[in-house]
Amino acid sequence: MNAPVLFEERFTDTGMRLGVATLNAPQTLNGLSLEMVDLLDGQLRAWASDNSVVLVILQGAGEKAFCAGGDLHGLYRSMREHAGQGAWANTYARTFFEHEYRLDYLIHSYPKPLLCWGRGIVMGGGVGLMMGASHRVVSTDARLAMPEISIGLFPDVGASWLLNRMPGRIGLFLALTGAQLNASDAFYAGMADFRLDPADWPRFCEALLHQPWAGGPGQGLAPRSMNDGLLRQTLLAHEPAQPLEPGPLRQHSFLINSICGELKLESIYEELAELKHHEDPWLARAATTMLAGSPGSARLAYALQQHTKLRTLDDVFRIEYVAALACVAHGDLAEGIRALLIDKDKSPKWSPATLAEASPAWVQKFFDEPWPQDQPHPLDDLGKA
């Protein structure tokens, strides 16, 4: 059986090494399991402390996806096993989210250049892996999204922090609609830094081996700065010549900001719903996805963006962790996964069934810590080391 994550080290002309981690589950679009998370965390930490490793590359196996999300089947099994027992009883879910968020935070704070190759589908947990990378590279055929509203979750993995930092109010729009972004709109939304044609990826990787990387014992800020610059130059040298055309998100940004600038979620939801009849199929699909999605997820995503607007990244991960466990215990997540992946009837029975029922009072339980009062937050040390 093949390992779920493959690791290799490539020697450069200067004797330094590049660490390459490959998510190796192409049959599930490299969906992120707990085992994959733990393997990645351990190896990234080892490479971080190895002075001969000057650059880390994170990629996915296959041609379809970097990573399409997290381990929904595993979460579903754990929810079935612990139904009615409360959020803290589900040991798999609390371990999965804790380890995943720690890995994502590690990538955000990584001490060396870390390039994430976002080829093809980058969604959910894949966005979490990619967003913290120092060099976020999308393929020309990339499709990025946070489609959690369709499964009764919310944009997590630090997405509350990311969405709040997008231009205008497009972050809220993406959370409510799960709209897919092409490479051009990924740049506009601040989710990508560089782009490459998939056909040029092998040539680009070969070019990396011939750069004059700085490193070795005693490396400090200067080599990091130099290596960041070398990586940037190499990426720009392989960038497609064809200019990026504005994508649908940017084309409709004025309309989106006007709608999502409303003060109440109810008004925003109602106006977005009207877009299901829009002549642009991208906007119509976004509205249709929202209307078919969980009203509770819409309320929770909105509340989280409000609640985390001025919070630090480590605080956001802690807040999202509490909300994720609440979704596992008494949210729509189990029903959403059932309808999409288990029974595949695509007819979820959401509870609450309407946005009016998913009221501001209803959503407060998603911010209540489920562990014993004398116990610290499982992510209490995040950002303090």
From TrEMBL:
Gene3D superfamilies membership: 2-enoyl-CoA Hydratase, Chain A, domain 1
EC number: 3.1.2.4
InterPro entries according to UniProt: ClpP/crotonase-like_dom_sf, ECH_dom, HIBYL-CoA-H
Catalyzed reaction equations: 3-hydroxy-2-methylpropanoyl-CoA + H2O = 3-hydroxy-2-methylpropanoate + CoA + H(+)
Protein name, UniProt field: 3-hydroxyisobutyryl-CoA hydrolase
One annotated GO molecular function: 3-hydroxyisobutyryl-CoA hydrolase activity
GO annotation, biological process: L-valine catabolic process
Top class in the EC scheme: hydrolase
Organism in which the protein naturally occurs: Bordetella genomosp. 13
Gene Ontology CC entries for this record: cytosol
Residue ranges annotated for the Enoyl-CoA hydratase/isomerase domain, each copy included: 19-367
NCBIfam families: PRK05617.1
Domain of life: Bacteria
Keywords carried by this UniProt record: Hydrolase
Keyword Hydrolase attached: yes
